[in-house]
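Hey, weird one. I pasted the AsnC family transcriptional regulator sequence into the form twice and got a warning about non-standard characters only the second time. First submission, copied straight from the form history:
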Amino acid sequence: MHKFDELDMKIITELSRDGNTSVPNLSKKLGVNTSVLYSRVKRLVKKKLIKKFTIVVDESLIGIGVRATMGINRDPKLKDQIHKALLKTPEIVVISEVTGRFDILLTLRARNLEELHTVAIEKIGKIDGIQNTETFVELQKTDKDPIYSMTG
């Protein structure tokens, strides 16, 4: 395991809030020399603590109107085949193997409820080895910015 300190945690907290923040602005905010901050960020990328810099899209502006979570139970013998089929379904944005009453939790997005229904019944429901599904439509979502700290 790599050693990271409190400054590293402050850097990733700030960058997770706004990955577009410039190094000079971030150095002022954290009270750290610009060259020190730049080398720290570079090291965090090299050590793979920072996997990538990305964007957050307002999906409603591109026609995504429905988000849902789907719980799936599957035939364990067909695990790999099912996973490959799920990866090919563009409406699925996250696939998580979990403990509990489901084997898999999916995060899906669709233009509307009709499209979600089609994805659930015609695409996911017809995958060989899917035993049953339960879909939870998102009514409201509040994103919370993470705070990273060495002290928990």
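That's the output from the first submission. The warning seems to come from a hidden character in my clipboard, not from the data itself. The chain has two domains: 6-46, 59-137.
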